[in-house]
Design goal:
About 75% of the residues lie in helices and about 0% in strands. It has six helices and no strands.
Length: about 100
């Protein structure tokens, strides 16, 4: 049983932790549900950037790594979905 299986959908959707959101994306990727994985990777990146803006500080190295991982994972999802035109936007956003 995965962490996601033990949480209600509402609890998962309310999670703000970028690392937790990335892990949920990873679970969806492993299940082949690539559109859901993309959504969670995107939300993880958004939450990282929103946290940075709220704190008024630069992106720490650990957050840069998480952002890069989420972007490359999103690119892999788009490859699996054969959405090759979307890969350009993933590439432009790499740190």
């Amino acid at each position: 049983m995965t962490m996601e299986d033990t949480m209600t959908l509402n609890e998962v959707e309310q999670s703000d932790d970028p690392l937790h959101l990335k892990e949920i994306g990873n679970q969806y990727f492993k299940k082949g549900v690539y559109d859901h994985a993309i959504a969670y990777y995107h939300k993880a990146i958004s939450n990282l950037l929103n946290g940075i803006l709220a704190n008024g500080i630069g992106l720490p190295n650990v957050d840069k790594r998480t952002k890069a991982i989420c972007l490359t994972n999103m690119a892999q999802c788009h490859i699996k979905l054969e959405e090759f035109g979307t890969l350009f936007s993933c590439d432009r956003n790499l740190p």
